[in-house]
Design a protein that fits this description.
The structure holds two protein chains of two kinds. Chain A is built from no helices and twelve strands. By secondary structure, chain A is an all-beta fold. In chain A, strands 2, 5, 6, 10, 11 and 12 form a six-stranded mixed beta sheet that branches. In chain A, 39% of the residues are buried. Chain B is an all-beta fold. Chain B starts with a strand and ends with a strand. In chain B, 0% of the residues lie in helices and 48% in strands. Classes of the chains: A mainly beta, B mainly beta. At the A-B interface, strand 5, strand 6, strand 10 and strand 11 of A face strand 5, strand 9 and strand 10 of B.
Chain lengths: 113, 117
């Protein structure tokens, strides 16, 4: 079945540092890939998505590129802010009808001033 | 457009009581998903429903838990005879039918925090 693996957290960075959160997946066909962010006490919000190989999703300074050859969708940001402190989830949805979403375990990011 | 609406936001129950959690999906979304999240942990998939059908319930405990998504009205997650271990945040998400929008993401509600005394 489909699965998503994320780097274990927590990740602690200083403000303005470069961020990478690794995500790799296992799936047949051509899944759609997503990054979600969860701030304390809230639900998950879509951060960005990519629907085919070599697509780059981007939002709020975050980027991730759909790499089919390495089955990866790593999240990056050039300069993090304290307000980016949250839990980040990588997810995929298979391309067959009725396919469920599969989420990674989440990576907690803490950005220190 | 209203997003996914969950209510109540907070629910307190005593052991042995029933908990009913409601979820109204985004208008036009026919697929609903329920997840459980323990403090400091990730999302645990519970059930995936379409109108009047359960698509995938592989994450639902076999006893005490049930879910429905009727033709009219919200989706309901029901927990009977609650125990302390049921204390968690329960999130609902919705999406369009996959055939029409397989690239579309899930939209999440803000969750129901269930506390068992």
């Amino acid at each position: 079945g489909n699965s998503v693996t994320q780097m274990e957290g927590p990740v602690t960075l200083s403000e303005e540092a470069f961020l990478t959160i690794n995500c790799t997946y296992t799936a047949t066909g051509y899944p759609s890939l997503f990054w979600y962010v969860q701030y304390p006490g809230e639900g998950l919000q879509l951060l960005l998505k990519a629907t085919k190989a070599d697509d780059k999703g981007s939002n709020k300074g975050f980027e991730a590129t759909y790499r089919k050859e390495t089955t990866s969708f790593h999240l990056e940001k050039g300069s993090v802010q304290v307000s980016d402190s949250a839990v980040y989830f990588c997810a995929l949805r298979g391309d067959n009808y009725g396919q469920n979403f599969v989420f990674g375990p989440g990576t907690r990011l803490s950005v220190l001033p | 457009n209203a997003g996914v609406m969950q209510n109540p936001r907070h629910l307190v129950r005593r052991r042995g009581q029933e908990a009913r959690l409601r979820c109204s999906p985004v208008k036009g979304h026919s697929h609903v998903y329920w997840y459980r999240q323990l403090p400091e942990e990730g999302l645990k998939f519970m059930v995936y429903l379409q109108k009047e059908n359960i698509i995938d319930e592989s994450g639902m405990p076999k006893e005490r838990f049930s879910a429905e998504f009727p033709k009219e009205g919200p989706s309901i997650l029901r927990i009977q005879q609650v125990v302390r271990g049921d204390s968690a945040a329960y999130f609902c998400a919705s999406s369009p039918p996959s055939r029409q929008g397989k690239n579309q993401p899930q939209h999440f509600g803000d969750g129901t925090r269930l506390s068992i005394l």
